[in-house]
């Protein structure tokens, strides 16, 4: 595989081929905090699309805007300027109630801290997105959830509460919960940050398998080159802008590129 070299991508450049369907995108997105001399541009005119059915990693040095980008694309935060789309839905100016429903039905989340409800057992945590939406899984959805539970080895743990599980088991529960509703897009924010390296590899393999076998669209924010090497596509951010985009790359190449970004920061 060729070595990674710096490649500048302006906000006007297409991040993905125009014919490739996108599950989410931002157009000239800006996000600013503060005013006057203290104003900080976390995002500075970012245009980026997340392709359907692919595993995209979003990387960058601390303060590059990667977490802010995920938050605005997921409807957890608003942009100062530009537009945000989930599929064909312009969510830029949606109200809190509309965004809550949209996230519940179309977006899944996997966080570094697992975010399981400690008073609920595994089965109830997995069903939580349906409970919050006031509905029960359909027969097809129930079969899908059963398949995920068996595939991830959680069948014997369904009556256990989070504190009775290992970190890896808790993250597997979080992944099943995120996949249960078959959302348009899953956002994963440093999903291996609290796991040992072996368990982290298992979780990344699960996410990659969800994308390649089941066509799940995933956007993962990470600073870890090893984690990013599991993705089909890597987007690098620097100073709130898209700096480069690469296809699947080895961890060593990603690390080398990141080091170059930090040296030029």
Tell me what the structure shows.
This protein has a 6-stranded mixed β-sheet with strand order 6-7-8-3-9-10, with helices on both faces. The chain has a 4-stranded antiparallel β-sheet with strand order 2-1-4-5, covered by helices on one side. It is globular. The chain has 8 helices and 10 strands. The chain is α/β, with parallel strands linked by helices and 265 residues long. The chain has one domain (22-263): Rossmann fold (3-Layer(aba) Sandwich), CATH 3.40.50.300. Strand 4 (81-86) and strand 5 form a beta hairpin.
Short précis:
By secondary structure, the protein is an alpha/beta fold. Helices cover 35% and strands 24% of the residues.
Shape: globular
Q: Tally the beta strands.
A: 10
Reported CATH architecture: 3-Layer(aba) Sandwich
Which CATH C-level class is it? Answer: Alpha Beta
Mean pLDDT: 89
**Any idea of the CATH topology?**
Rossmann fold
- What's the SSE pattern? EEEHEEHEHHHEHEHEEH
The secondary-structure class comes to alpha/beta
Q: Which tags fit this structure?
A:
alpha/beta; Rossmann fold; six-stranded mixed beta sheet; 8 helices; disordered N terminus
Topology, pairings included?
Elements: E1 22-33, E2 40-51, E3 55-59, H1 66-73, E4 81-86, E5 89-90, H2 96-106, E6 107-111, H3 122-132, H4 139-151, H5 167-180, E7 185-189, H6 197-214, E8 218-221, H7 225-228, E9 233-238, E10 241-247, H8 251-263
Parallel strand pairs: 3-8, 3-9, 6-7, 7-8
Antiparallel strand pairs: 1-2, 1-4, 4-5, 9-10
Helix pairs in contact: 3-5, 4-5, 5-6
